[in-house]
Amino acid sequence: MPRLSRRTLLRSLAAGSAAVSVPGLLTACSTGSDGGDISNAGKKLAPWPAYVAAPGAEPDLAPTDAGVQAGYTSYPSDLTTSVERTPGDGSTVKVMSVTFGVPPKGAAENQYWRAVEKALGVTIEFTVIPQADYQKKMATVMAGDPDALPDIINVFSGFVLPREAQFVQRRAQDLTPYLSGDAIRDYPNLANIPTHAWRDMGRVGGQLYGIPLERPLPGSTLWLNQNLFADAGMKEGWTSEDFAAVAKKGTRGRTYALGAAAGSLFGNGVHSAAFNAPQGWAVDKDGVFHANYTDERYKAAVAFQAQLRRNGSYHPDATSLSSPDLTTLFLNGTVGSLQNGFGAYQSLYTDSEGLLTPAPALPYSVGGTPGGVVAARRSFGYTILKKAGKERVEMLLRILDHLAAPFGTEEWELLHYGLEGVHFTRGKDGSPRATRLGEVENITNLPFRYLAEGPQVLFVPGRPEAVRALHAWQRKVVPVAIRNASHGLRSRTDTTQGTTLRALMDDTVTAVVAGRSPMSEYDAAVKKWRARGGDRMAAEYAEEYAANA
After folding, report:
1. Rounded to an integer, what distance in angstroms lies between the CA atom of residue 415 and that of residue 99?
2. Is the dihedral of CA 151, 154, 159, 164 positive or negative?
3. What is the pLDDT of residue 6?
C-alpha cells in the first residue's frame, strides 16, 4: 500500500476548508469593552457591490442559479489574462493569513513566492498562522498597536473571534467608497465575486469592511469510502434505519464505518441536516429566529448519533482524534467516512488514488421525510485592510483583484500551480501536474488563496468522471441544502458571548453522544444557553434580519 505523506494529509485539510473547528474561549480584544455599534439595524445600508461576471472559460457542465457549480471535465487549452497591468507600486506589503500547510521556505529560496511577487509588483512579507494557533495569534493582533497591523489580514470564518466585528469596525479600512455599488467596477475580478458571498460576509454598522472568499453552496459533507459503504448495503434513497444498519455492517474488526475528529460533535452537521434541523439558526415567515439547539429535530439527531456510538460504528477515539490523524485513518482504510467541507474533493480524489474511491454521501430520510444537507456560509472568511491613504488602499485593492483572477486565466494558473517547468508539467490532457518542487512551493503552504480568490469551480485534473459525479451529486442535494439564517447578520451578544455559549452546547452534545451524559443533561444545557444569551441572540438576529430585508 502506498505510504501517506504528511504533505498529502495537510493538502486534504486545506482543500476541505476547515470543516472542523474548535472555538476557544478568547477574551482579549482591541476594543477593550463591548463598545461599538456593529448593528446594521437603523443604519443606512451600503449597497452591495455590483456583480459583473468576468469573461472565463466555457464550462463543460453548466452551473445553476440555485447553486450548482460550473464543472470542467478538461483544463482550458487557451488561457486568457484578467488584469491589464501589474497592480503593485514596488513597495513592501505585509500580509497575514491562516494556513493549513507546512511552513513555507523563505522568499529568497522560494521560486513560487518570488514569481507571485513579480506578478504583483510588490515585495510580500507573509505571516502564515497554523489553524491551531489562529485564535491565539489573532487575539494578540486585535489587542496590539493599530500601527503594527499587517496591510492585508485574512479573517478566517472557522472560528468565532470575540468582538471580531468591533475590531473590524475600529481598526480596518472602510471599503464602502471603493467597493459599494458600481465603484467595484474599477476591480473587475472583485466584481466577479457573486452577491451571495458579500451577503454572507455581511456589513458592519451598515458599511463594507471586507472582501469575501466565495465558497460553493454545499458545506459540511460526509465523505465515504464508496466501496466499503456499497458492500455494506448503501443505496440511494436510504433511511436513517438503513444508514444505521450499513454503518453497523461496515464496522468489523479494526475497521469502523464512521470516523470523527475532536470538535466535530461526531459529524453532527451531516446528521442534524438529515433530520432537517436548523443549521445554527432558522427564521420563520414572521421573522422570528429559532436556534438549532431548541429544535426537537436537532435533539433527535443527537439521540440518533448516540445510538450509532452505542452500536460501535464510530472509531473509539472519535472525541480525541485530530483532523490530520482522522484523514490518515480514512485514506488507509481504518475508518470508512469522515466529515469535511465539500471542497475536500479537490485533494481527496488525488490523494486517495490507488487506495480507495471517495464519494460524498446523499442524505438519508427520517420518518419518511427526505433529509437535507448543510448549506455552507458562502464566504470562507474575508479580507480586511489596514487603514491607509486613498492611493495605498487602491493599490492594495488592485493586488487583491489580481489574486481573485477566475479559473481559466494565466493569473489563476500561476497562483494555483506556480511556474510551468518549475512547479508543474502538463499531463496528456493539458492539465497541470505538480513537480516535486511544486509539492513544496505552492498555494497551500503559502496561502495567497486566503487573501482573495475568484469563484470556485468543479475541476479535478485528469479526472473527468469525478467532476461529472460531483456535479450530479450537487444537482441532487442543492435543492435540500439548509441555510443558517444568521449568516451575514450581526448579534452583539454573539460577538461577546457566543464562543462561550457554543462551547457549553458543544461539550454537552459530545458528552451525550459519547455516552458520558444522559439526554436530560442536554435539556438542562439548552435552558442555560437560552438564559445566558441564546434568547437575546434570537431577538438581535430578528432585528438585523428585518433591517436587511
Report:
1. 15
2. positive
3. 45
**pLDDT average, residue stretch 117-131:** 96
Q: What is the 3-state secondary structure (H, E, C) of 440-455?
A: CCCCCCCCHHHCCCCC
Res. 10: pLDDT tops 80? no
- Residue 35's pLDDT is what? 52
Instruction: Note whether 504 and 448 are same-domain residues.
Output: no
Does 27 fall in a domain? no
C-alpha cell at 391: 492611493
Q: Following DSSP, what letter does each residue of 137-153 receive, concatenated? A: HHHHHHHS-GGGS-SEE
Within 10 Å of residue 128's Cβ, how many Cβ atoms? 20
On whether both 363 and 258 belong to a single domain, the answer is: yes
Q: Are residues 456 and 407 in the same domain?
A: yes
- Helical (H) or strand (E) element with 96: strand 92-99
Residue 459 identity (one-letter amino acid): F
**CA nearest to 471, candidates 61, 43, 143:** 61
204 and 255 assigned to the same domain: no
Pairing outcome for strands 220-225 and 432-434: unpaired
Total number of domains in the chain:
2
Residue 51 lies in a domain: yes
| Whole-number Å distance between alpha carbons of 130 and 346 | 20
Instruction: Please compute the mean of the pLDDT values over residues 135-152 and round it to a whole number.
Output: 93
Task: Report how far residue 304's alpha carbon sits from residue 337's, in angstroms, rounded to the nearest whole number.
Answer: 17
Alpha-carbon distances, residue 422 vs 170, 309, 426, 436 (angstroms): 43, 48, 11, 9
Question: Are 342 and 300 in a shared domain?
Answer: yes
Whether residues 270 and 176 share a domain: the answer is no
The C-alpha cell 478566517 sits at: 156
Cell 473571534 belongs to which residue? 161
d(CA 151, CA 348) in angstroms, rounded, equals 34
Q: Which CATH number covers residue 120?
A: 3.40.190.10
User: What's the CA gap between 231 and 353, in Å, rounded?
Assistant: 19
> Which cell numbers hold the place of 24?
476557544
For residue 26, the model assigns a pLDDT of 38
Pairing mode, strands 289-291 and 281-283: antiparallel
HEC sequence for 312-331: CCECCCCCCCCHHHHHHHHH
Question: What predicted TM-score, i.e. pTM, was given to this entire model?
Answer: 0.90
Q: How confident is the model at residue 13 (pLDDT cuts 50, 70, 90)?
A: low
151 to 231, 302, 384, 392, 405: CA distances (angstroms):
53, 44, 8, 10, 20
Domain of residue 189 covers 46-216+378-462
Positive/negative CA dihedral, 209, 214, 216, 219:
negative
Average pLDDT, the chain: 92
Cell numbers at 326, concatenated: 482522522
92 and 136, same structural domain? yes
Last residue of a domain, one of 421, 443, 462: 462
Identify whether residues 186 and 126 lie together within a single domain.
yes
User: Does residue 324 lie within any of the structural domains?
Assistant: yes
